[in-house]
Structures are given as structure tokens and as C-alpha cells.
Write a structure and sequence with these properties.
- By secondary structure, this protein is mainly alpha-helical.
- The chain contains twelve helices and two strands, in the order ααααββαααααααα.
- It has two domains: about 90 residues, Arc Repressor Mutant, subunit A (Orthogonal Bundle), CATH 1.10.10; about 140 residues.
- It starts with a helix and ends in a 16-residue tail after the last helix.
Amino acid sequence: MNALERFIDPISGFSSKPAPFVVEIFAWYLHEIKLKDRFQTSDIGPCFDEVHMSRPANVSLVLTRLCEKNPPRLIKDSKGYRLHQNARKELALRLPQRATSTATTALLNDLTSKVRNPTHKVFLNEALLCFRHHAYRAAIVMVWNLAYSHILGRIFDAHLQDFEQQRAKVYPKLPTVTKLTDFEDYGERQVIEICRGARIFSATICKILTERLNRRNSAAHPSSATFTAVQAEDMITDLVNNVLLVTGPLPQGTNSHGSS
């Protein structure tokens, strides 16, 4: 089940809903989960494909009519479409309580027996506590801290030579890493960029880290944005399943670059 399928799974009878409703849900997903400020007509069709539903005969017409509703559900400008603020808030409230919240809590609980690093345990326990108490903004921040701390540990323990060689090429003025605390002088994006260039982690993992860093930044910086269970679940499941559980200690026989 892909991310979009997981997202719509709790919505009863989703596949039989009228096209305008389905498009609005996809629009909300593109905004809130994929972090798109605007979306294009060409973004909507593939959403139908991902969940194995037939596309409307004319997606552009559906979008136009949503813009023309009174009050409008969508706004169009030179950069593309976006949900009207009222529609965006309404959809956040209408989306059902996620059945997958239980699975997300179980995923974090299951990690507690696998995480031995004391710092990581603190981040994990706080992420779990925040998620259980619906503090989704904080849960997003804490699960990022857990994943990023893990990434730094993997670099230091298994890939430091490769990291240093690439760092010297692209950021020669940054300090040499001789202890974990030296990473405090690095920006998170710099670390991800160096890892990508050195092929320490796969391009897919680096892309996930970049996207999730954007989400963390949205949650960590003061703003009026509301963060929901949907967004926290997506962040947690993606970082746990696609970063934490695939970038751990390398089994014997795997190459030193850890091309997961």
C-alpha cells in the first residue's frame, strides 16, 4: 500500500465519491502531505492512478468548477491551483480519525526494544508521548530528531572517511568531523547534500530526508499552521520505515556505502 492509499484508506466509500470530492481530498494531500504550495492539473491525474481509480473525463473542468463554486473551493493563479483556506480547514476537520493511528503508535512502541542509544531513546519516547497526546507538531519535530540523530550516528560509525572526502570537496571550510558533536557546526541540508554526493545513502533516502526536513521546519517554526494526525503519521511512518529501519548497522558482506 503506497502513501496515498494509506491516506484515503480510512475514508469510507472513497472510490464511489463524486469526482469533485475526490479531487479536493487529493488537493489536501498534495498540500499537507506532499508540501506543495500549488498544484497543477497534471498532479491530479496521477493521484487517481496511484489509488487505482478511473480518472474523470476532464480533470481540468472539475478544477474549474471547484474554483467557480460560491464560496470557492479552489483558487487559481499564475502558479497553479490551491485549496481555499476555508476548504482546507474544513477538510482537515472532516477527515476521519485515522485507524492507522493505532498502527503508528505500535510502530513507535516496537522501536523501543530496538533503540539502545540513550539519546535516541529520549527522542523516541518524546515522539511517542507527543503522538499519543495529539501534540502532532511536537511529534513531527521529535521523530525528525530521532531520524537525524540516527543518520549522524551511522555516518560517524560507518561512513566517516567517505563523508570527509566529499565534505572537503563541497564544504572545505566546515570543520573536520572527529567526534559526533562536530556535526553541530553543520546545517542539516549540508549533511544530506554531502551524503548524497558521497553516495553514503541512496538518492531515495536523501530525497526523503530533504522532504521531511521541510516538514520539520514547518512544524518547528512559529506559524499559524495546524498539524494533524494525518501529517504526523505520514512523517513517522516514512522516517521509521524508509530511513531508520533501512540505514541501520550494515550486515556482513554489504558494501561500505550502504546503498539501501
